[in-house]
Amino acid sequence: FEFYGQENWQKSYRELCDREEFETRNLYCLNQILLPKFINRRIEILSWQPALLRYHGFFDEQKVDHFLKIINNKTLVSQGITQNGKTIRNAKREANGSWIYWKDYPDLITSKEYIEKYLPEFNFTAAEPISSLSYHPGGHYYPHHDYLTRKSGEDWWMDNMRNRLATLIFVFQNAESGGGTVFPKIGLTVRAEPGDAFLWFSMRGDESLEDLSLHGGCPVYSGRKIIATIWIRAVNQPILSKILDGNRTISADLII
Ligand SMILES: O=C(O)CCC(=O)C(=O)O
Ligand SMILES: [Fe+2]
């Protein structure tokens, strides 16, 4: 299988993507009922430290179909790099995507409220809009950190909401072959089912970069992968104030 940008992918990363034994760890699973709404959380802890959690059946079929309908009706644009106002093809990222703004989709309000109730550990007023992504065969996203290097004064988000604390990904459709999310420094690939979500942290307790959060979208070989990402910013997050020894990798016990 050949794809544009494949020369960037080292063999060890491709192996993590392609070999089934790296897919899951089943470290620890728990089932929680969150009151008062009786939300049933089926959590699989894929990595304890740094925390990497998969939520089985986060969205039901109806909500997944709703998101798929919205994404399929949107004009998705190539996620290249913009230079001098022109988007050029990026050998490290071959995907199409679009922002979904909650205000444009009043019907999504129940899903928005559901996310907030499902993950009460986070303050979602500090979350970016939804970023929807679609990968066709040959699509991929070379491993990177979601933590940004922009300086304050350069953008509104950095100045007001600080850097990205955590990434929450919803899976709406799986590729037939390929297309997991690889974490080379943790040594595993997440291949969650439609309706599942997974989450990890891009920063340590002192808001510095969590280097172990390196991750990428594995190349899609056949079929189409459709996911959505929500980046949660650091401002007013109760989790960060719970961490006493700041310069530490965030561990899963803070969010279960
Ligand atoms: O496609 C993936 O699995 C990962 C997407 C990603 O890393 C991102 O949206 O930042
Ligand atoms: Fe990412």
Outline the low-pLDDT stretches.
Answer: none
Number of DSSP helices?
A: 5
Helix content: 10-25%
Estimate the global geometry from the Cα principal axes: globular
CATH class: Mainly Beta
- Strand tally, please? 18
**The number of domains:** 1
Strand content: 25-35%
Element order: H for helix, E for strand: HEEEHEEEEEHEEHEEEEEEEEH
CATH topology: Jelly Rolls
User: Overall pLDDT, averaged?
Assistant: 93
What's the end-to-end separation, in Å? 40 Å
Strand order across the biggest sheet? 1-2-3-15-11-18-9-8-4
Q: What does this protein structure show overall?
A:
The longest helix has 12 residues, at 61-72. Helix content is 16%, strand content 33%. The N and C termini lie far apart (40 Å). By secondary structure, the chain is of the alpha+beta class. The chain has five helices and 18 strands. The chain has helices at 11-18, 61-72, 109-118, 156-161, 238-242; strands at residues 28-34, 39-47, 52-56, 77-78, 81-83, 86-88, 93-94, 96-100, 130-135, 140-144, 164-173, 177-178, 181-183, 188-190, 197-201, 215-217, 220-222, 225-233. The structure holds 2-oxoglutaric acid (AKG) and fe (ii) ion. Fe (ii) ion binds at residues 144, 146, 215.
